[in-house]
Structures are given as C-alpha cells and as structure tokens.
Specification:
single chain, about 90 residues, mainly alpha, 3 helices, elongated
Length: about 90
C-alpha cells in the first residue's frame, strides 16, 4: 500500500508534518513481505463422550488435551511461533 504524505487527510493524521522522516525513507519502495499460512494435509473432528475418553486419547497421541482444546497437530507442533535466536554471518575473514 503506497502512502501519499501530501494528502491533507494523511498529513493531519501525522501531526501536520508533510515530510517523511529519514527512518521512514528507508522503508520506501521496499518489497512487501507475504508469508503464506501453512495448511494441514487433513482436518479431522474427533468427539469424545467423557473426561476418561479424552484422557485416553491424550495418552495415545502423547499430547495434552483438555475440554478447552480446540485443535492439535499430530505429531505435536506448537501453535505458537518458536522464536529462534538470529544467526549472523559475515563474509569477512
């Protein structure tokens, strides 16, 4: 999405300063990053009749399941993105 800083409506949103800051200028004309969501191969709805049945299912698939669990990956995959430490490399010797 391109942003016109000369548009009166946009200027008023940013305190009336029509000039783009030096930091913002670094982001102009940068390619947009789009990361596609990874879809599962299959989705299966499993219904259980009791807490005992839920506990048995959790034991069999080696994953924690509660009455509030809405989904799970098999084999286990966290629903939260794991933060990895950035790896830096340099061509300098």
């Amino acid at each position: 999405m391109k942003f016109n800083m000369n548009n009166e409506e946009n200027i008023s949103l940013f305190g009336g300063d029509s000039e783009v800051s030096l930091q913002d200028q670094e982001w102009l004309d940068m390619p947009e990053f789009i990361q596609n969501k990874k879809e599962p191969f299959a989705k299966i709805i499993i219904r259980v009749e009791s807490q005992q049945d839920l506990d048995e299912l959790a034991k069999r698939i080696s994953q924690p399941l509660t009455p509030k669990t809405k989904s799970a990956w098999f084999p286990f995959k966290s629903h939260f993105r794991e933060c990895k430490q950035p790896e830096w490399s340099s061509d300098e010797s």
